[in-house]
Amino acid sequence: MGLLISPDHIRVLKKGRTQFQINNNEQLFIRGDEIELTPEQTALVKEFSLGLRKELPEIVDIAMDSMELGFGALNKVIKGIAGTDAAQGIEEHFAVLQRSLMGRFARSGDNFYLAPQGLNELNDFFEGELSNQVKSIVTNSLSIMLDAMDEAFKKSDTEIEGKTVGLGIRVDLISAEVERSLKYNADRLEQKADAFCQRFETLDAIEARLQTQLPRLRNYDILSNETNINESH
User: Fold this and answer.
1) Taking Cα atoms as reference points, which of 125, 105, 118, 114 lies closest to residue 13?
2) How many structural domains comprise the chain?
3) Among residues 22, 10, 94, which one has the least CA distance to residue 57?
4) Which residues of 48-203 form beta strands (DSSP E)?
5) Cβ neighbours for 171, distance < 8 A, ≥ 6 positions apart
């Protein structure tokens, strides 16, 4: 099912029709019927609504940060060894990948849309289609760099800050700079992803509690249903 988040409501859609809706983080409608909620249920609905607003768009941010981290490093290496013109092709491929990823989502200001897909399907997209495209780009990049290094060996040494520097030293300098940048940013991203996973599990448990209180919601599971399966046993 698709998920639409706007400032006033959250809607879960199937074939374009709203299955259930949360208004202003506290009113719940299932197939057009307003559900009378107890104070406890209202609190759960609010907690779940606020969690969806925060966490689902975070998936996009982490995915984009991951791609930018890897391609930023790759781009820096290619520019350092093969020059700006060689890196332009990689930047164009990266833009295609970004569009492919964003095709799974739509985000404009405070509005967010998650196209109909399961989280497992989204995982398959990252590990399958997207991964293969990344491998192809990296392979092409290595070919570009090897050609550039071959040309560099045939030419005179390069000057850096007024000093003549051989290709081997130039590669070492670029590698050290990229490695420092990668380590810092990868550690930061890993911490961000770990924190997200913990919050996501908490949100999944909230959804399970809400479905226990309001059984009609079991037909419209948004997050992974692992928690629900475990509780049913």
Assistant:
1) 114
2) 1
3) 10
4) 105-108, 111-114, 158-160, 163-165
5) 81, 149
- The Cα–Cα gap between 9 and 46 comes to 11
Query: Is 141 inside a domain boundary?
Result: yes
Is 81 exposed, middle or buried (CB count within 10 Å of its CB: 0-12, 13-18, 19+)?
buried
Q: What is the pTM assigned to this prediction?
A: 0.66
Number of C-beta neighbours around residue 101 at 10 A: 19
- Give the tens place of pLDDT for each residue, 173-218: 667 777 777 788 888 889 999 999 999 999 999 999 999 999 999 8
35 is a domain residue: yes
163 part of a folded domain: no
Task: Residue 82: name the closest of 207, 225, 91 by CA.
Answer: 91
* Alpha-carbon gap, residue 224 to 45, rounded angstroms: 18
